[in-house]
Every structure is written in C-alpha cells, then in structure tokens.
Design the sequence.
C-alpha cells in the first residue's frame, strides 16, 4: 500500500502527512509540477498554503499538473484525502461539493477539537469501528483561517441522503461556523474525502495526547488492501 | 580610479546630507578621511547605514564584549547570522532573538510579520531548518476606566496587528509558534516592543558561515526582486526616537512581507546547501545589499564588486544607491564557485525564486558598486564595516524616579480573594489563549508541550530526546533594579526549562532600551549587561547571539529597560517532559526552594498603583541554581505530576494557574500571620517552585532542597488557609476559597480586549 502526498511550494504539513502515512504503509512526496503519481494507491493533498493562497485558498492549486492527474485518479475511483488546504483544493477542483469560507471570527484559529464519526465515508473511517449512537469521537487538532464549510441547502440535503457527511464537530467545538457543524465530507462515490482538522497531527500520543487521527490513514490502508485482495 | 557621476547626480552630497542621514559631523569627517575625499551619494548612503546604531552597535559593542560566549555546547557563537549549540545525535540547534520594534510601532501587522521573516532568514542562512518561533511583546495599558479611551484603543490595535502579523507569517511558512510572552505597561505605550525568536535544526557538519571566500567566485542574489520598500529603514527608523506626529510619514519605510516567497526561499536555500553548491550564504536584512555584501566581504577579508544593473528590480529607474540600501524582504546573497553558477540558477528556477549573478569576489579589499561596468561607489570594506567609531557610555544612575507610578486599579482594602481574581484577570496575568490560538503551534510534528501545557515549550528530537525553550523578561522589575532584574529574567527562563526537565544549553538576548546617550539609560544598560553576564556564567548558559534595540523612547520618556532573554535547553527523554497543571486528586503539593518573596515591584503592587522601589532584594544565584537542578532531576525521573515556577502574582497565582490548566482544585495551608498574608500569597521572588505528586516522592526531594508540603490536589475550588506559629494565632484560617469556574472566568479576560472583531477593527 503506497500513499502519494502532494507537495506544493507553499505546502506546510506535507512532511507531517508523509510521516503519518508511513505509520501504516509506504509513502512518497509528489511534486506539484509532475503529472506522474508514482503508482500511489491513495493520494493525500496536504495542509498549508499551496501557492500562497493570496487569491482564495486552493484556487490556483487545482490547476497544477499534479492535481490534473489527481482529478483523473479520483475519476477512476482512487482514494483521495484532502486535509485543510487539501480540502479547500478538492472543493475548488469540484471533486467535493461545497466551499470553505473564512472562519466566522475572521481569524486563523488553532485548537484541539472533538469530531463525531458519522455514517458516511466508510472508506476513510472504517478503522474507527461501527458507527454508534451517540457517535464515536476523535480528538484531532484544527488550525485554519478558511474552514467554514458551506453548501446550498439542496446540496446539503442530498449529501445527507447519500451518506456524504463523514465528520461533524461535537457540540461546542465548531469554532469556524461551518453549516450543520460539518467537519469533513466525501463525494457521492465515497472515494474522495476532505476534512478541516488535521489527522496527521494526531498520530502519536507524545505530540498532543491523541493518536485518533491515525485511524483515518489506517482506514485508507484497509480500503485499498481490501480492494486489491 | 575616477568615480563617474551619472547625470542628475552631479551635485555631491554635503555635510548637511550626512547629518540628515543620521551621521554626526565627526563621523562624516572620519568617512571623508577614510575615503580620502568626500563620499558620493552611493557611498554616503552606504556609510550612513553601516555606521548606524542598528548595524554598528556603536553604543553597545564594548559592553557586549563582557558577556560569556563560550561553553562546552557552543558550536557557533555571536558574529554569525545566528548562534548554535550541540544538542546531541549529530544535530545542532541554531537560535536567535531579534527585535522589530520601530517598524511595528509604525505598522504593527507588517512590522511584526517581517520581524518573523527576518529572524527565520537568520536561521536558514546558517543552514538550519527553522523549527519554532517564539514572540516577546510589550504594549501600553490596553484598558482604561473610559471604555472609549483612544490611547487604550490604540494599544489594542497594535496588539491585534502584531499578533496577526506574527501568525500570518509563521503559519503561512509552516514554522510553529510554540511560545512567547506579552506584558502591558504604561512606558511601552509610545514604543511597543516586538521581539521574535526562532530556532532551527541542522546537521552539525551542515552549518555554513557567511564569510565570502575565493576571489573570482560569483556573488548571486536570489529571492524576491528589489524595490524601493524599506529604503532608509535602518537609519531613519531604527536609530532615531519616534516622534508622536511623524509616525504616519514613516510608513513607506516599513517593509512588506510575503511568507510564500520566503517559504520558497527557505526550501531553495536548504536544497542549495545540501547539494554543496554554496561557498557561503547570508540573508538580506536591515540595510539590504549594503550590509550583507559588506559583511560577507569583511568576514572573508576580501573585496566584492556588485553591478546594480544586474539586480532584478521591482521598479524601473532605481538609482544605484536605492538598489544598494533597499530593504525588500525575502532575499538572500550567496557566494558560488563559477562552475556551480548554472546549477544554482537552475535550482532557483525549480523553486520559482529569482536568481541573478550580480557580482564577484575580489582580492581588492574594497566594496565597489558598478552600474553596467561604470564605477559608482568605491569604499574600503574595513572602513565600512569595522571602522565605525564605538562610543563609551557615560552611565549615571538617575537621582529621580524615571517612571510615574501606574494608575491604581485595586483598592487597598481588597480581600485576598478579590486580589487573586483581580490579578488573574489583569492584562499581564490573564490567559494568553486568545493570542496563541492565532498561531499554529504543532506543524512539523515536534511539539510535545504546547502553550499553557507547561512552563516551557518542548520539541521532540529524532533520537528521543527533546529541546525546551523559553523567552522571558519582566521589564518592570528590571526598571526597579537593572542588575538584579536581569538576573531574575535569566533565572526565570532557566526555571521554566527546569519545570519540563531541561538543562540550559545556551542563551540569546535582545536588549531593548531607551536612548543610550542619556546617562541614566546608559546606567540601565550597563547594569543589565552586568547581571546578564553573571547569571549566564553561573548557569553555564553562554550567550550565542542576540540583538540590541536602542532609542526606544518618545516624548513621554523611555521604555522600561527590557533585556529579553531566550534560553534553549535539552531533556534526555521527550516522554518525561513536565507539565504545569495539577493532575491527580490526592497528590501532595509542595513549595520548593529558598523562596523569600516581597510585594515590592510585584503585580499586586502595580494593581495598587505603587511606585517602583529603588532596588530589588539580592538573589542567591547559587541556591536558585541548586533548586533548579533538583527540580529538573525530579521532573526527568518522572517522580512528579506537575511542576510550575512561582513568578508574577506570587504563590496564589501560581496555584491558580496549576488548578486552571489541570482542571482540578487544591486545598492549601500557608504559614503566615495576617500581617504577612499578602506577602505569602502574592509576593514575588526568584527561586520558588510549586510541585505536585506522591507525598513520599516530594519528601525525598526535601532532603536536597528546602521544601514545604503546603496542601493537596482535589475538589473544584482553590482554598487557601493561613496558620501562624505566633502565640495568639488570631486571624488565621481560611483566607480565600474560589471556584474553578470563577477563576477561569477571570483568567479569560484577554478575550474581551482582543480578537473580538474583524481584521480591520
């Protein structure tokens, strides 16, 4: 199982994502200017500020050669995980519905948050175990200025109906003002997933006291290996 | 060779021009003597910058020579872009603190942002990857009885701008901001301080120096293009007192930062070094090309020719002197062997940063500026860099108090409970959460202790050990006693390191003072440097680099003398890093150390509006050092649940902080009579620690250092009682009992002053 982690000139969390992925499989960086995804079984679009993001977060990154290949890869059913800026890029690329707007407080905010695992997006959450009531929680840090998830109400209703809502901020944890407390969503096919919190920063209890984020990477490994078995 | 003047430059500059650029008459005459003639425009601009206080340290250099700079861990000392200490495993930690005070007072967002950009370039200029930023900020009082008070509103604007700027740069470039400090005091109202410290990691044999070498080698400028921004920043801004009215006019001299450009520059620089393509590397900071090229030439004892026509420009028609003094951000200068130039430029292209060969290393010992081959400036490197006159300070202690007493905000008859809540909600002591939540503190996956989890930030190293880092200075106490107050600041940093289990390796400092030409400021500076040297010697934490920011004063007087101390230490096992918060109900609480507090110059004295005392009680540095060693070892052996040093606000505030961070209360009994209650609760001094853990473990520690068991962790309130040895024992018993929720509400006071609205607020 091999992860490919995209690297833009303004990526910040690409090495963190690379190291997190290496805890469950092989992983390699993919330079933004390259089209070759190096035989990766799953792609991670990492956090950071891709090309500076002075225009709008992720607006330029979606046109990079590597992203064009990722769009094709996703179309063929490949697993794609977008974290923070990666989520923004996937929305700009229309691989995911909706958009990420400036936080309600208009500031970059960095905070450990609790998110609830919903029924959608099994390819990315299966290592969390069965969906429970009340839902299971993951403790993962979030840090962003543009994280307020928005989609039109018809879109949201459709997403809810087709199991595209994957993670929700637990009560009191939604600091950015996302609609319906949405923290992570997937596409209709369930192979593309974006979330604002950073699972790659919750893979070792030494750093921050939670390894809950590892389950996202573990889930992707299970999905890929289940499919190839 | 004859200097050809370009058209429009036929008028040679005069003595009056030199004076306007900040040189004295005597300095101008010395320049003429060194040149053997009057300097032309290019030369005068370059001399005026390199001979400014900011570049030449002409009022502080002699004093700084008294500081300890060598030790077993020191790999690179002062004189390079940053210092470095050995941290084991073949790695070194590079670190340095620098100020960007004057630019931040003019435009806080860009001033603070470019301050971070500048200190990061210093770190990667020596070949280290930046791994952390800390900030040290000082502002005026953010509150006033009248909610619409314009002065307090301006303080809040500066705070908002500076914190946003630091976050903007650090977050965007992917370097975590892991710690910092901020104080609010009247004397900083017209001169805020914005100091930023950065740490980097490098392979021990991967460090690079800035000395230009090898006549015939090529000088390559890479990074952003050069514009008119920041022209005159060094001399016009940094070396003159800020006038109240002039601030607006000076805005064009503040540079604008672009963290995306710097991110590319950082990666490009490190890749150039790792491929062995560079002979030497230097960042462009104050005084731009002038300073970086001249200093590279000076260190290598060579000459450099630069052709300004080959410098990529952002604006057309820039004069040669403008190109040489521009402070456009995100640029680096390197020396490259001719055979490697093509490879260097190719790598610049990969990272999409501009790169241009703009000059040559020569054996002439001269700094020569050309325009398309025509010589437009020609100066001896030694004269430019080393021959600026150094001045002796004329220190004399002021016979009058320099600072007015602060406005009283707490009634003299307040109860201990009221005093504790007032302290917890005061701007200096309330929680910094609204500030540090603006910063990414975890990127790069090294952060073992985040802000407010422990007294120092802790960063994991690849071999399982960890770095710890702290930054501190209580300027009010330094103002009361520059010598003792500075020792306290150094001890405070070391105490913070001890609380996570780390031993100091090295120190950096930023000396923020008023106008050193005034005898009482010279006295503050002299006394502070004396205390700094003594404390760093005693702790074996030598100074590996630093910065000096003088002339921090305005019409209403000087700032508090503020020698900001940054200290880096190491702990053998990252998993053993200490925590600040109480953790377990039933744990015993101990007060450790020879702790002899007093109210003088304390936070309580400030709230009561008391004037500064003339001097602080002397400190037994050796005793404090022994206590710190005992605490460090106890934390390192994992014998404790928590460790926190007693600092501003005294023991009661330290107890409250341990309760709030841990989310659990405590019941404490102190030996004090009603007459000494306030001193016991709120008095301040160096050397006290608050530890919690198993009673037996704490008692064992008591065999080594003074230790008193004072209470037990538990409940959802902080309860403090007094017990007296005196005969009557009257008036003792419970003196305060405050619920965690009420303490938490008080401690959250900063949120009301900060960040409640939009960016443009």
Sequence:
């Amino acid at each position: 199982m091999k992860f490919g982690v995209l690297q833009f000139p303004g990526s910040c969390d690409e090495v963190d994502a690379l190291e997190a992925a290496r805890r469950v499989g092989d992983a390699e960086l993919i330079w933004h200017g390259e089209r070759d995804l190096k035989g990766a079984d799953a792609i991670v679009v990492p956090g950071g500020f891709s090309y500076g993001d002075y225009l709008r977060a992720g607006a330029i990154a979606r046109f990079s050669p590597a992203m064009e290949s990722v769009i094709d890869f996703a179309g063929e059913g490949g697993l794609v995980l977008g974290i923070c800026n990666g989520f923004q890029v996937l929305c700009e690329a229309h691989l995911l519905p909706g958009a990420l707007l400036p936080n309600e407080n208009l500031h970059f905010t960095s905070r450990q948050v609790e998110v609830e695992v919903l029924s959608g997006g099994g390819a990315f959450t299966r290592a969390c175990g069965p969906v429970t009531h009340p839902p299971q929680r993951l403790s993962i840090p979030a840090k962003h200025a543009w994280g307020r998830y928005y989609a039109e109400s018809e879109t949201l209703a459709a997403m809810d109906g087709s199991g595209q809502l994957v993670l929700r901020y637990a009560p009191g944890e939604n600091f950015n003002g996302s609609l319906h407390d949405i923290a992570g969503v997937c596409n209709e096919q369930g192979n593309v997933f974006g979330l604002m919190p950073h699972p790659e920063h919750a893979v070792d209890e030494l750093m921050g006291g939670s390894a809950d984020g590892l389950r996202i990477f573990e889930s992707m490994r299970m999905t890929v290996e289940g499919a190839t078995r | 060779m004859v200097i050809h003047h370009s058209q429009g430059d036929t008028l040679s500059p005069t003595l009056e021009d030199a004076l306007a650029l900040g040189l004295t008459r005597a300095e101008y005459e010395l320049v003429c003597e060194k040149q053997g003639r009057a300097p032309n425009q290019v030369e005068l601009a370059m001399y005026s910058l390199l001979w400014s206080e900011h570049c030449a340290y002409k009022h502080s250099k002699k004093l700084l020579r008294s500081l300890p700079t060598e030790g077993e861990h020191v790999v690179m000392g002062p004189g390079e872009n940053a210092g470095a200490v050995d941290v084991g495993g073949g790695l070194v930690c590079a670190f340095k603190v620098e100020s960007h005070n004057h630019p931040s007072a003019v435009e806080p967002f860009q001033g603070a942002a470019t301050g971070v950009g500048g200190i990061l370039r210093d770190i990667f200029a020596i070949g280290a990857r930046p791994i952390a930023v800390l900030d040290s900020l000082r502002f005026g009082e953010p509150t006033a009885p009248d909610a619409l008070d314009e002065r307090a509103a301006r303080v809040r604007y500066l705070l908002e701008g500076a914190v946003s700027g630091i976050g903007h740069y650090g977050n965007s470039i992917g370097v975590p901001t892991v710690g910092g400090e901020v104080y609010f005091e009247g004397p900083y109202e017209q001169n805020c301080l914005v100091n930023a410290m950065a740490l980097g990691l490098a392979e021990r044999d991967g460090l690079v120096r800035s000395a230009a070498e090898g006549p015939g080698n090529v000088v390559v400028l890479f990074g952003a293009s050069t514009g008119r921004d920041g022209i005159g920043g060094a001399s016009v801004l940094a070396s003159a007192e800020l006038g109240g009215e002039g601030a607006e006019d000076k805005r064009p001299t503040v540079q604008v930062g672009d963290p995306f450009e710097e991110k590319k520059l950082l990666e490009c620089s490190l890749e150039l070094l790792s491929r062995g393509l560079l002979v030497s590397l230097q960042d462009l900071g104050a005084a731009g090309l002038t300073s970086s090229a001249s200093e590279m030439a000076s260190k290598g004892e060579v000459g450099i020719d630069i052709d300004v026509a080959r410098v990529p420009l952002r604006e057309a028609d820039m004069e040669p002197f403008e190109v040489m003094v521009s402070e456009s951000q995100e640029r680096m200068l390197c020396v490259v062997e001719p055979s490697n130039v093509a490879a260097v430029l190719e790598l610049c292209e990969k990272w999409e940063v501009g790169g241009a060969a703009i000059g040559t290393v020569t054996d002439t010992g001269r700094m020569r500026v050309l325009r398309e081959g025509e010589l437009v400036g020609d100066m001896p490197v030694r004269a430019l860099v080393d021959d600026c006159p150094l001045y002796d300070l004329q220190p004399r202690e002021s016979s009058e108090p320099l600072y007015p007493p602060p406005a009283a905000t707490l009634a003299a008859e307040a109860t201990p409970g009221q005093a504790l809540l007032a302290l917890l909600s005061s701007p200096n002591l309330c929680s910094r959460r609204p500030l540090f939540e603006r910063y990414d503190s975890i990127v790069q996956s090294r952060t073992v202790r985040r802000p407010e989890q422990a007294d120092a930030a802790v960063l994991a190293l690849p071999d399982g050990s960890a770095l710890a880092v702290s930054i501190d200075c209580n300027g009010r106490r330094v103002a009361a006693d520059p010598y003792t107050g500075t020792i306290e600041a150094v001890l405070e940093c070391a105490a913070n390191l001890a609380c996570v289990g780390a031993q100091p390796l090295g120190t950096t400092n930023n000396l923020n003072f008023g106008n050193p030409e005034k005898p009482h400021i010279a006295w503050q500076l002299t006394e502070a440097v004396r205390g700094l040297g003594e404390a760093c010697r005693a702790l074996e934490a030598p100074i590996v680099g630093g910065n000096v920011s003088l002339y921090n004063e305005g019409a209403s007087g000087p700032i508090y003398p503020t020698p900001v101390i940054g200290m880096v230490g190491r702990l053998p096992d990252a998993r053993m890093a200490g925590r600040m918060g109480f953790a377990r109900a039933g744990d015993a609480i101990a007060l450790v150390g020879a702790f002899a507090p007093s109210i003088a110059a304390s936070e309580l004295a400030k709230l009561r509006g008391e004037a500064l005392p003339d001097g602080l009680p002397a400190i037994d540095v050796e005793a404090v050092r022994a206590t710190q060693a005992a605490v460090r070892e106890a934390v390192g052996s994992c014998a404790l649940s928590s460790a926190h040093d007693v600092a501003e606000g005294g023991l009661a505030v330290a107890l409250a902080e341990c309760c709030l961070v841990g989310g659990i209360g405590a019941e404490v009994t102190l030996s004090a009579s009603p007459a000494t209650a306030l001193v016991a609760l709120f008095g301040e001094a160096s050397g006290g620690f608050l530890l919690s853990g198993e009673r037996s473990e704490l008692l064992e520690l008591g065999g080594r250092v003074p230790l008193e068991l004072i209470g037990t962790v538990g409940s959802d309130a902080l309860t403090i009682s007094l017990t007296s040895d005196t005969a009557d024992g009257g008036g003792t018993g419970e003196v305060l009992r405050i619920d965690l929720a009420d303490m938490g509400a008080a401690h959250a006071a900063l949120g009301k002053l900060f960040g409640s609205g939009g960016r443009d607020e």
Remarks:
- Chain B touches chain A at residues 164, 167-168, 171-174, 258-261, 263-264, 267, 351-352, 436-448, 450, 460, 574-575, 755, 757-759 (CB under 8 Å).
- The two ends of chain B are 57 Å apart (CA to CA).
- Confidence is low (pLDDT under 50) at residues 1-10, 233-239, 757-761 of chain B.
